[in-house]
Amino acid sequence: MISTVVYRGNIIFTKSSEKFTVIENGYIFVKNGKVDKIKSELSKEDEVYEIIDYKDKLIIPGFIDLHLHAPQYANLGLGMDKQLLEWLDEYAFPEESKFKDLMYTEKVYKKVVKELWRCGTTRSVVFGSVHKDATKILMDLFIKSGLGAFVGKVNMDRNSPDYIIEDTQKSINDTEEIVCEYSNKSRLVKPIITPRFVPSCSSQVMQGIGAIAKKYNIPVQSHLSENISEIQWVKELHPECKEYGNVYNKFGLFGEVPTIMAHCIYSSEREMNLIKNNGVIAVHCPTSNLNVATGIMPVRKFMEKGITVGLGCDISGGHKISIPNVMVAAVQMSKMKWLESDKTYKPLTTAEVFYMGTKAGGKFFGKVGSFEEGYEFDALIIDDSSLGDLDRTIEERLQRYIYIGDDRNIVERYVAGQKISEPKF
Amino acid sequence: MISTVVYRGNIIFTKSSEKFTVIENGYIFVKNGKVDKIKSELSKEDEVYEIIDYKDKLIIPGFIDLHLHAPQYANLGLGMDKQLLEWLDEYAFPEESKFKDLMYTEKVYKKVVKELWRCGTTRSVVFGSVHKDATKILMDLFIKSGLGAFVGKVNMDRNSPDYIIEDTQKSINDTEEIVCEYSNKSRLVKPIITPRFVPSCSSQVMQGIGAIAKKYNIPVQSHLSENISEIQWVKELHPECKEYGNVYNKFGLFGEVPTIMAHCIYSSEREMNLIKNNGVIAVHCPTSNLNVATGIMPVRKFMEKGITVGLGCDISGGHKISIPNVMVAAVQMSKMKWLESDKTYKPLTTAEVFYMGTKAGGKFFGKVGSFEEGYEFDALIIDDSSLGDLDRTIEERLQRYIYIGDDRNIVERYVAGQKISEPKF
C-alpha cells in the first residue's frame, strides 16, 4: 500500500554545501518514508493527502553523527584538564572495561540512545567497546528506539591495558558473530568493522577483520592521524607503510568497503590523496580536537580536494552529543585556521557545516540527510519561538537555532518517515 | 538586627586560581548577606540558626560577566558568517539604533536581564547603547531584578554611522546626568563610564567623560587591542600615543578609577605593563573572539604578569550569555594557544577559568565571587543529578556541570545574601 503524508512548514536543507535551499511555508510530500517532492503551494488534487501542519516552525533534516564512543558516555565533561594519555588511562579505558558487566551496559547505553534522540541525532556511527554482548545490547536498544545507526564492536589486541586487551582470534570471531547476527536484523541498525586504531590492532587482527569486511560487505570505521606522536608511533610499528592510512589500506580497511576515518588533522598531502582516491569519508570532530588539544583539521583543504567530510561529536573527547554544538565549533575552529593560515583557508560557513552534519554524513547511510527526491524522510521540527523574533529569514532562524538553541527547541523527530518518540526504556 | 542563615551542601569555590577549595557536605554561615565562616560540621551552639539544607547539591559562587552588550541581545546567533565590519554595519549598529524607541528597549532589556538570571550570572558589567533613557530603563530593570550590575551609556561621537553618532556635548551631558541620578540609587546597580572604543570617541568626549569619572569616582569600561587593523587605526588617529592603551590613559580612562578593558588580544609587552601598573582588569571573551575571528588572547601571559583577567560573554559577538560556556571556550582556546606557542603557554585549567569567572571578575564589585570571610553571599545552587553519577569528586561534578550542564541545573540564585527569583517583568 502506498502512503503519502504531506508536512507543511518552513523547509530548509542543503543540497550542496554552497548554500541553503529554502521553501518558506512549503510542503514536503513523503511517500513510503521517502521524500517524493516539495511544493510551495498545494493544488486541488493534493487535497486527498493527510497534511500535518507545522505552521511557522522549521523543518530540517535530522542530524548525522559519524563518530562517537558510546561506552564513554558516563565520562562526559570529566577529565578535561588531563593530557591525552593520562585521560585514556584514568578515564577512557577504565570506563570502557566496565562494559563486561551487562547490567551496567544496559543502564549506560539506554542513556546514550536517549541522549541522541534528545539532541536530534537521527543517525549515528558508533564505537562500542571490545565486548561482544555489550555491543549487541547497544544495537538492540538502537533497534527499539527507531533511530538509525552503525554500531561497531571495537577490536584492540595490542598496546592496550591488560584489563581491556583482547585475544586476537576471539576478537576476530566475536566480530564475525555480530556481523552474521545483525547484518539483516534491522533495516536501520547495522554492524560496522571497528579497529580502534592502528597502534592497538595487530596485523593479524586487521587481516582478520579486513577479510570479514570484504566477505560480508560491511563498512569500516576507525581513527586516523589525530596527533603527531600517534603518527610517529604508527610509522615505527609499520615502517613498510608510507602513510598511516596505508596501514589500514594494506588490510582492506581503507575504502574497499565504505569507510569512515575520524580526525585526519595531520594527514599529509599523500594521505589526503589516498583518502580521496579510495572514497574514504573523513570525520571532523572539532569539540574533541579542542578538548584533547590535538589541533585544527584543515577542513577547507579536504573540501577543495573533493573529499567528503562529515561531523562527529566524539564523546567523551567531545563533551556534548549535540551536532549543532559541533557545527558551531567547526565554524569557530575554521576561523582560527583562517587566521593561522594567514587567511589562506576561508572560514567554513553555516551552510557548509550544516551540509557536513546532514547530507555529507548522510551519504554513509544511503540517501539520507537532504529533502531531495528519493531521500529518506529524516527530519526535525524546530520550534524556535523562544529564541527571538520570528520576523527573520529562514536561514537566519536556522543559524540562530544552531548557535543558541538546544534540545528544548526540537519538537518532533522523524527517521525514514516514522515519527520517533522518546525511547521508552 | 543581625541575621545569620546557614546553607548546607557541597561547597566549592576558588580562593586562588591554582585550585578549588572544597567542603563536602559543609555549612556556609551567612551573616547579613556576607559569608561569616564555613564549617564542616555543626556544633551545639549552631542550633539556633536557620539551616537551609541543599543536601547533595553543589553550592558555588554566582557567575561574573565583565563584558556584554545588552542592546545586541536580539542579534544573538545571527550574522555569524559575516566579517567584523559587515557584521557591525548589517547587524550591530542598526540594532543598537533601535534603542531610541523606549517600547522596544523595554521589551529587549527585560529579556536580557531574565537571561542573565537564567544563566546564573549574578553580576555583570554591561554596555548599553548611546541612548540615555534606554540606559536608565536597563538600570531600573536590573534594580528590580535584584542582580548586580554596572551599566554604561555608550559614548561615540566620531567614525560611526550617521544614524547612531552622538553630538559631543550631549554625549558628555547625558553621561553626567546618569551618573548623578544613579550613583546612589541602588547598592547593587551602578553607572560606569563607557567610551565605545578609541576610534569612535573624539578626544573632546574622552576628556569630558574622563573628568566625570574622576569627579564622581565612577569606574570605566571599554575595548582594547581586539584586532590588528583596529590597533593600526588607533595609531593613525593618535600618533602621539605609543600604545592603544595610552590613549585612554591620556584622558584618565585607564586605571585612575577602576577600569575594565575587553579583549586585549594583541596587547604589546609595553601595553601589558601599562595594564599591570595601572591595575586595569583585562576581560577575556573567547566565544566572541572565535565568532568574530579576532584571535586568541594569550591569557597565560597576562596571568604570569599578575594582571587580573576576568571573563565576558560579549554578546552578540559571543553567542551565549552563559559564563560556563565562556569558561569552556577559554580552556579550549588556551589549548589551541598552547599548540600554537609550541607548548610555551600551558593550557588553562578548569580551576583557573572558574576563578576568572567568579573571584577575579568579582573584584570589580568589591568582595564578591568567593566564599571567604567577608565576601557577599552570591551563590548558585546546582542540581547536577541529571548529568550523571553523583559518586564523583566535587571537583569532577563541578567540571561536568560547566561542560555539559545548563540553566536547567541551577535551582537557586543568591545575590548579597538575597534569594533572587525569576524577574517578574
UniProtKB/TrEMBL annotation, chains A, B:
Source taxon at top rank: Bacteria
Domain Amidohydrolase-related: 59-418
Cofactor note: Binds 1 zinc ion per subunit.
InterPro entries: Amidohydro-rel (IPR006680), Guanine_deaminase (IPR014311), Metal-dep_hydrolase_composite (IPR011059), Metal_Hydrolase (IPR032466), Metallo-dep_hydrolases (IPR051607)
Single GO term (MF): guanine deaminase activity
Keyword Zinc attached: yes
Name recorded for this polypeptide: Guanine deaminase
Species this protein is from: Clostridium brassicae
